[in-house]
Amino acid sequence: MKKKKKRVTLASLLVKALCASAVLIFIFANSFRGYLNYEINRQSYEFITSNIENYIGQIDKLEVDYSEEEILKIMNARLSIFSVFEIDIYEPLTSKMVIINPEYSENCHFAAALIDENKNIVASNEKKLVSMILFGKNHKDNGYYSCDRELINLPEVDKLYNEHLYKDSFNLYHTYDFDSVYVNRENFTFIPHKGTLTLIENKNENLYYGWKEEYQSVVETIDIDITIDSDEYELIELSKVEGFSDERAFPRQSITGYYGEEKESIDSFDFTSVRRLDGSGSDSWEIEDGVELYKRYERVYINKKPYYIFAGYIVDKNDKNVVNLHIKWTIIFGVFVLFAAMLLVWIENTKNKAKYAMEDYQRDLTNNLAHDIKTPLMAIGGYTENIMEGNLTESEQRAYLSHILENITFADSLVNRTLQLNKMGEGKPHKEKIKAEEAFERAIKKYSPMLDERNITYSVNGSCEVNAEIASFEALMENLVSNAVKYTKENGEIKAIFDKKAIIITNTVVEKIDTTDLKQPFVKGDKSRSNAKGSGLGLSIADKAAISNGMTLKISCSDREFKAEVKL
Fold first, then answer.
1. Same domain, 318 and 435
2. Is 326 a domain residue?
3. How many domains does the chain have?
């Protein structure tokens, strides 16, 4: 015996959908995390390479005009101003991006150093005030000068750093307006003399580039007045004249800023700990969970003397902005997946419900047909047995044969109407314009003898034209009329009203009946299946006929009236 297939429930669909969603979300979360880590590594390595290439390129150019000692001093300023490290991760589907750089990321540092053969650091990107000073067009002393507290070693410079410059950060920056400065052209250093230093705050933390004036506010303005007495420095007045060809525009200062890394960060790379220096090398390791340290060095020659350029970074792959981006897009993906899963569950459950409803419908139809057809078959059997006994008069035999014929007719009608119900709605209907009131008139005229016998009157009010398939609409009218005629009490009335929105057929009844399941096959108002008066299929056929034509059948019953309404 074939085992009945177990039905899929909504609960099982939900469990499967949630499990599949959890797996997809997990895969996405890990894949996206992997992408973020890959992008951080890729960009970090690119910056290491580009910075080292840039340093070597600058040294090669400086060798043309400067001595070894001068190049070392120039690179001390340039390592600070030209060291660039910034990871930009663009958010999917948006123009926003997550930025990791030493300016504002807590565990991000970039260090660079120039080391001699004895492993002494001769230049680095230690944080310092750097400015380009121009003495004239193509002047030999033009270049980057640093206000390096380590080289200058003056209380006034230390005070400037300690009280003001340390405040510089991602959302705080300085602007400078120097009227005069002290310069040492031999070691490429300068000291502010007269001018102002203004600290400005950016109040929009999400605006990384192109700060707008409405988001800026002045935190403080500091007047600078430093006087020194040193033969190593000359005092120069800075021009405010614009233009490059006008000699009055020199000497002047530009691109002044506070650049580089704190000394503690540079020391943490321990560049001088390399056991053996050869042409090039690299090393990396994880300091702690997610925080990676990487450093690389390349040999470079300055006037044929070997030096080594070191560069390294510390980057936190668990930077809060990266973590927030990961969580945000995992949630977005999760919501999308869950929505899609629930939509698929709803679609599948709807299909299953329709499938199971059809299976139940077919089973109930078969069971009810088998149940209802037993009555005429039993009657036929009983009458046949009586006839076969042979003790009947001719009139009794005729009566029994008449009853047999009636039950055969009823059984045949039952089977035919069941087949009609099954076929209803199959295929695409060919619709035509039909006068609804005329279809009603044709149907009710078939019952004229019954109406006259039970003294039932009928009336037709209004008219309407419907777009429907002829056979199914005729079946709709036929079954509604048949139901009304069969269940209208004697001396009762049937009314039919037609308009553009609905067709309403009412008939008077003896008592109120329950209409809850009346459109189901083989259900009769009196719940009696032994009554051969009707098959209980009429309203089922009418309902399917209405649906197949895009209409809706609603039925109701009061103590006095049964109402069938077809909404067009």
1. no
2. yes
3. 2
Rounded-to-integer distance, Cα 402 and Cα 382, Å: 13
Question: Residue 129 corresponds to which amino acid?
Answer: L
Task: Calculate mean pLDDT across residues 480-486.
Answer: 89
CATH number of the domain to which 459 belongs: 3.30.565.10
Q: Are residues 451 and 324 in the same domain?
A: no
User: Which range of residues forms the domain containing residue 203?
Assistant: 10-330
Q: Whole-angstrom Cα distance, residue 296 to residue 317?
A: 19
The DSSP code for 501 is S
CB atoms closer than 10 angstroms to residue 433: 8
Boundary-marking domain end, from 300, 330, 360:
330
Per-residue pLDDT tens over the stretch 139-189: 889 999 999 888 888 998 998 888 888 777 667 788 899 999 999 998 899
- Residue 65's contacts (CB-CB under 8 Å, 6 or more residues apart) are 140
Q: Look at residue 97 in the predicted model and tell me its pLDDT.
A: 84
Q: What's the half-sphere exposure (Cβ side, CA atoms, 13 Å) at 321?
A: 21
- Percentage of the chain with pLDDT > 90? 44
Strands 457-462, 493-498: pairing kind: parallel
Q: Beta-carbon neighbour count of residue 394 at 10 Å?
A: 7
pLDDT of the residue at 189: 92
The dihedral formed by the CA atoms of 107, 113, 117 and 122, expressed in degrees to the nearest 10: -130
In terms of domains, do 432 and 318 share one? no
Q: Report which residue type is found at 402.
A: S
Residues 6+ apart with CB under 8 A from 309: 52, 55, 56, 112, 113, 114, 115, 297, 298, 300
Is the pTM for the entire model greater than 0.70?
A: no
Q: Is residue 359 part of a domain?
A: no
Asked whether 321 and 90 are in contact (CB, 8 A), the reply is: no
Token readout for 394 is: 């001719």
Q: Which of 411, 415, 419 is nearest to 377 (CA)?
A: 411
Closest CA to 437 of 388, 481, 371: 481
Distinct helix (H) and strand (E) counts, the chain: 11, 21
Confidence check: pLDDT of 362 > 50: yes
Nearest by Cα to 148 from 166, 163, 126, 165? 126
- Flag whether pLDDT at 502 surpasses 90: yes
Expressed in angstroms, the distance from the first to the final Cα of the chain is: 48
Instruction: With beta carbons less than 8 A apart as the criterion, state whether 502 and 488 touch.
Output: no
Last residue of a domain, one of 294, 311, 330: 330
- Shortest CA distance to 321 belongs to which of 217, 211, 209, 208? 208
3-state secondary structure of 339: helix
Per-residue pLDDT at 530 exceeds 50: no
Q: In sequence order, what are the residues at sequence separation of 6 or more whose Cβ sits closer than 8 angstroms to the Cβ of residue 255?
A: 81, 130, 131, 132
